[in-house]
Structures are given as C-alpha cells and as structure tokens.
Amino acid sequence: MNTLTGIAAANGIAIAKAYHLVMPDLSYTNKTATDTDQEISRLDASLETSISELEKIKEHAKVTMGEAQAEIFSAHLLILQDPELIAPMKEKITNNNMSAEAALDEVVTEFVTIFENMDNAYMRERAADIKDVSSRVKAHLIGVDFPDPALIDEEVVVIAHDLTPSDTAQLDRKFVKGFATDIGGRTSHSAIMARSLDIPAVVGTQNISEEAHQNDMVIVDGLEGKVLVNPDDSTLETYRNKQTEYEAQRTEWAKLKDEPTFTADGEQVLLGANIGNPGDVDSALENGAEAIGLYRTEFLYMGRSEMPTEEEQYEAYKTVLEKMEGKPVVVRTLDIGGDKNLDYLELPEEMNPFLGFRAIRFCLENEDIFRPQLRALLRASAHGRLQIMFPMIATLDELKKAKALLAEEKKNLTEAGHSVSDDIEVGIMVEIPSTAVMAKQFAKEVDFFSIGTNDLIQYTMAADRMNQRVSYLYQPYNPAILTLVHNVIEAAHAEGKWVGMCGEMGGDPQAIPMLLGLGLDEFSMSATSILPARTQLLGLSKKEVASYTDKILAMSSAEEVVTFINSKTQKS
User: Fold this and answer.
1) Which of 7, 35, 144, 503 shows a CA-CA span of 20 to 30 A to 377?
2) Looking at 108, 142, 176, which one is the last position of a domain?
3) What is the DSSP letter of 422?
C-alpha cells in the first residue's frame, strides 16, 4: 500500500479503480509498409473508431455542457471525415509505402503548418483541432488507450496531472467517484469544480499520476487530503466504514435543507451557492441554497469554438432565475484571463496574466463582447431577482464606465419594448486590495459587495495561488486579510449595503466563526458545503464571536488566529 498526502479539495470518501486521464506516449517505430492495403485498412479502422468515440462524446457534452458547447465536437467530426485531409494520407501510403502512422503525421504536420501561418485567428485555432483529433487516431493506430472522461462507463477514481475545467465538465458523477491530481490547490478550478460536482477530490499530491496505475485500487480521502493506492483488506474495510459514517452525517445535514439559516442567538444570515452553469442550480437547491451567490458566466464561453450569442446567454440566465423562483441570483459578468482563456479569442501572452488584461479590463475594451452579455442579463431580469456583479474592479472609474454601459443598454432595451426589471442590484467583486482599502468610496456607488477571497488573498500576500512552492502564503486567516474583510463590511454597513463572500473562504468551517463575528451578511460556497455550514452556524452565537473581533484583528499571525478561534468554538 502506498499513501500520498495532498490537499483536501472536496469532501467525501471515494473507493474505486484508477482511471488514468494522462496523455499516452504516442511515439512509434517508423517502418516501410510491405502491405499498403493493410495500412489503409488500419487507417480506416482507426478513423471509424475515433468518429464513433467523438459522436458519443458529443452526445454526452450536449447533456452536460449544452448544445452550443457540444458543437466543438461537430467540428472535430468534420475534420475526421474531410477527404482533403484523409485522401493525402492514403496517397502517401500507396505511393511512398509509408506506414499509416507516418502518413498521418506527415499530412497533419503539413496542414497544421498551413493553418498556423494564416492571418485569420479563427483559422489558426483550427490547427489545434487538427492536432487534437489526429492524436486520437494515432493512439488507435499504435494500440494505446486515449483518455476520454466522457466515455467512462464504470465506477472509477480519475488520476491526472491536472484537470482542466473542460475535463471536469465531462465527468459523469454516476461513474466518477472521485479524483486525485499531482498539482493544484484548494482554490484551483479543478478543486472548485469537484466541489460543484460533489466529487471527493485530493489535489497537489505531486506524483499520484506516477504512483497509481490504470486499474489500481485507490481510496481518495477528501476529508483528510490522503490518497491510498492498493490498500490492504483491513484498510479498505476501515475506509468503507468511514464512508458509511460520512454518508450518515450527510443524511443528518439534509434535515436542514428547507430551513432558514439562523445562529444560536437568533441572528439570520443567507447561505448561497456558487455555480458554473444552469444545471448546477438543481444541486444548489437540493443542498438548501437560499440564493446563488456567484454564477460564473465564463463557463458559458469556454469549451466551444465561438462566442455564445446574446440569445444563448439570455436563455441560460433566464433558466437560472426561473429555477431559483424569486431567490436572489448574483451573476458575475465575464471573467476571463489569468488561468481562464478562450481558444477562439486572440488574447495577448502576458508575463503575469493574473495581474493583466482580464475580467472587467477586457470587457471595457471589448464592448462588442460585453454589451451582448449586459443585454442578455437585462432581458433575463424580468424572470427573477437579478443582481449583477462586475469582477476585478480596481478603480471607481472602471465601475462608473461599467454602470454607464449597463444603463445605456437598459435604456435601449426598454425603448425597444423589452421587459426589464426596475429592481436590479448592481455590485462589485472585491478582490483587489486597493478596492478593499477604498471600500468607503466604492460603497456609495454600489448596492452590494461580494468578497472574492481567492484572488484577494493571493494579491494581498503576493503569492500565486496556483504555485505550490508559495502555497504556505495562501492564508485566509491572516490578520491582514481579516482586516481588509472587516474594512469592506464596515464601509458597506455604514451605507446600508450588504456584503457577501463568494471566495472559497466563505464555506470554510475554520473561517465561518470569524466571518460571522465580522458581520458578513451572505456566505456563498460550493453547494455541498451549505448544509454543513448551516449546521455549524446553528451552534454559533453571533454576539459571542463578534466580541472577539478586535482581539483577532490585533493578532500577528494566521496561526495565532486559528488557535484562538478553535479554543473559543470547540464546544460548538
């Protein structure tokens, strides 16, 4: 048995066979073809298998990601059936006695070179599509497994170096019981998606992809951040019991599903869910969400070959608002850049992308992309209680420009006869330290704040949250962070405005007592964290934890804060 330690990214215990989501070695020994007909048959068979797989993936993507996002696989299918690509391969086999692998490589290289040298950005992106689908065909020619998360049809634990948002979007919760990765942190997108999908996960193990092999028995302990490879029978039994105990605990939490959130001394707060697509609303409601505290709209734009239309966006926002039946829904406008890029947009390469041309900075310079989203949101506002949030706001000027565009589009829509709500709240995501420091000035211009601690912490501590070597500086309980949070809450309350928190800190059991004491109005988190948080808050006195606030803010380290708050809340 081999035990690896990582970061507990999503709660729960998963026990299943390993499924390696790692790109296989596609090297081969090049040989002259002695039977060209056989090589052509091999090529045809590999193409047919690849087409069959992509058709299944496309159908799965329609269900999990929506019709528009699934269209990228239609483009891949067209490539595999394009005679202008396939015919030259067969000609090279017949005329030059090349193996199917060599013919595939040579033709693909020629086409990729042509596409990559084109002036049109869209056509350059097709080079990546050709490389992608050719890798699948080559894998079948060589006889190695090509990883396909959408085609998993048995219970497994996914093992990978890392998982992209599109990888996790393809995971079927019915079969994927958990995952473990080499890299990543609690706030990486793979971890956030795992919590959204309610899949136990451990990230940042450093080398699980090397230690666990295909079909090894694996235990993912998302409660303590451990991964056990090929455990003995005694360990398996221990973890199956632990799994049963955890499920029993979840059953107890579920009894609070339809209850409002109160503290032990009768103070009410709001618990919301963070979501990435309309399908996530069902899980949010099943877990007792009283609001959507963050709808990450960038997932509407990702995993596809072109920008979503205004109509597609309208339908998505409308669906979420209608499903929430009058409960508040905070929709964050497009937040791309950093580690979230769109293949079909020519975004500049940057030395420090997290500090670069992203989120509201990108939107204000690309009104042709921003305005359709604002129009879609405004049109959808007639179907529920919409709250619009602008991300990455650093200056009052940025906020005023964004609000002006929103007001302009509202005027255009109402003049054109569209129904638009007159009760839309407009707020900002507080994730830049300068904004937290100037919260008094910002509070006069917004209806609410939502604190994005994932970025606020990394910017305050000057520590990339994706870099494991400085992960020790990701300190949510550092007095510097708590002081900024306190400043934002105080400034908002002075103006009669409310404050939420949509960063991962909002659902952190260690942080909840401190945030309650600081006066946070809304806690937004992964859906599966809501019921445990509601249970925890029932045992906390807001008056009592608020009495510790000054003492905590005066402390000198995160460790000191944690030790103190634990000593005060142990009885809870």
Assistant:
1) 503
2) 142
3) S
Count up the domains in the chain and report the number: 4
Secondary structure of 236-303 as H, E, C letters: HHHHHHHHHHHHHHHHHHHCCCCCCEECCCCCEEEEEEEECCCCHHHHHHHCCCCEEEEEECHHHHCC
Other Cβ atoms less than 10 A from the Cβ of 299: the count is 23
Share the mean pLDDT of the chain: 91
- What 3-state DSSP class applies to 360? helix
pLDDT cut 90: percent of the chain above it: 69
Report yes or no: 513 and 540 within 8 Å, Cβ to Cβ: yes
Torsion angle of alpha carbons 41, 46, 51, 56, nearest 10°?
130
Q: Where does the pLDDT of residue 121 fall: very low under 50, low under 70, confident under 90, or very high at 90 and above?
A: low
Q: Mean pLDDT across the stretch 523-536?
A: 94
* Same domain, residue pair 279 and 416: yes
Q: Are strands 328-332 and 291-296 parallel, antiparallel or unpaired?
A: parallel
**Amino acid code (one letter) for 159:** I
438 and 563 together in one domain: yes
pLDDT one-digit tens code per residue, 443-487:
999 999 999 998 999 999 998 876 767 878 889 999 999 999 999
Q: Are residues 361 and 440 in the same domain?
A: no
Say which range, 188-197, 244-253, 440-449, has the weakest mean pLDDT.
188-197
Is 50 exceeded by the pLDDT of residue 572? no
- Residue 467 has a pLDDT of 74
Residue 531 lies in a domain: yes
287, 533 in Cβ contact below 8 A?
no
Which residues lie below 8 Å from residue 48, measured CB to CB, with a gap of 6+? Answer: none
Name residue 58's amino acid.
K
Whole-Å CA distances, 389 to 114, 316, 442, 557, 569? 42, 17, 13, 32, 33
The radius of gyration computed from the CA coordinates of the chain, to the nearest angstrom, equals 25
Burial of 365 (0-12, 13-18, 19+ CB in 10 A): exposed
Check pLDDT > 90 for residue 174.
no
Given a contact cutoff of 8 angstroms between Cβ atoms, the answer to whether 406 and 381 are in contact is no
Distant-in-sequence, close-in-space partners of 116: CB < 8 Å, separation ≥ 6: 124, 127
pLDDT given at position 350: 78
Q: Which amino acid is at 531?
A: L
Tell me: do 498 and 553 sit in the same domain.
yes
Just list the catalytic residues: 189, 502
Q: Between these two residues, 139 and 119, which has the higher pLDDT value?
A: 139
CATH number, domain of 554, equals 3.20.20.60
Q: Residue 336 in contact with residue 370, Cβ under 8 Å?
A: no
